[in-house]
Amino acid sequence: MNLRQLTPSMPLLVAFEAAAKHESYTLAAQELFLTQSAISKQIQQLERHLGVKLFQRVGRHVELTTAGRKYYGEIKDALDRIRRASLQAMTSDTRDHTLHLATLPTFGSKWLLPSLHDFYAHNAHITLHIHSRIGPVDFSDQEIDAAITVGSGNWPSLIAHPIQNEQLIAIVSPEKAESHALTKEWVAQQSLLTVASNPDAWHDWFLYNELDPHTMHPGPSFELTSHLTQAVHAGLGVGLVPHILVKDEIARGELVAIGTPRQSLRSYYLVYPPQHATLPALVAFKEWVLSLKSPD
Questions:
Q1: SS3 state at 266
Q2: How much is the pTM?
Q3: Distance CA 110, CA 114 (A)
Q4: How far apart are alpha carbons 187 and 206 in whole angstroms?
Q5: How far is 219 from 237, CA to CA, in rounded Å?
Q6: Per residue in 131-189, pLDDT tens?
Q7: How far is it between the farthest Cα atoms of the chain?
Q8: Which of 5, 111, 99, 112 is nearest to 52 (CA)?
């Protein structure tokens, strides 16, 4: 079959996409700043080109046929990809000097942001956009170039560089610390606050301290470590959090550490899809952030 027959012109496809989205020639015309007659003619031309009916009239309205609905599903995704590719091409020079980085909110504010002045001192030509993300990062929408996340490092489809160990420490408010002996047995009787992304942390802590996990008293769960530490400070229970995220509060006496930090089964990683590996801004950021790598 002639390839030209399989490749309708872009104006026809854009008119069809708008008409299919609204199932209305009138609304399609308004969206594309054309007349309703022009939309109708373009749809008719596309139907002749393909040799199939894409719309059917139902009273005074139009509806997609079965073939039209299937065609719309394919065309919409294809046009979206073309538009994204065009935007990337149009902004390629800017993209070389821009990095969109997703990071865990508390880790970003406590570990990354305080050091960014050093990054900019060596990379003044790069603009870094920070996006807060909790949980897995979706790279399919092309908004995010790279991410800092926490886990075991098992992301088969991504390139992952470890940047910081995670060491967990049990913490309590100063008021509770003043009135109790902070033994592991005392901790086992308290309301245990957890971060939602690491629900097994207390179970592992109990096993490490030779305590029976069945005796735990689970307390509230929090999405953000910063919210958990605020709850601990308010006396709502005992928290188990990454030491690096609370060491300043411990040093200032705002929180009291119970025991010593111990290595978690997780670490913090810089991750990104292989196709982003050569982005100049990402290369510069990767070199810089890996130079910060150090034990907690």
A1: strand
A2: 0.66
A3: 7
A4: 10
A5: 7
A6: 998 877 888 766 899 999 999 999 999 999 999 999 999 999 999 888 777 888 888 88
A7: 85
A8: 5
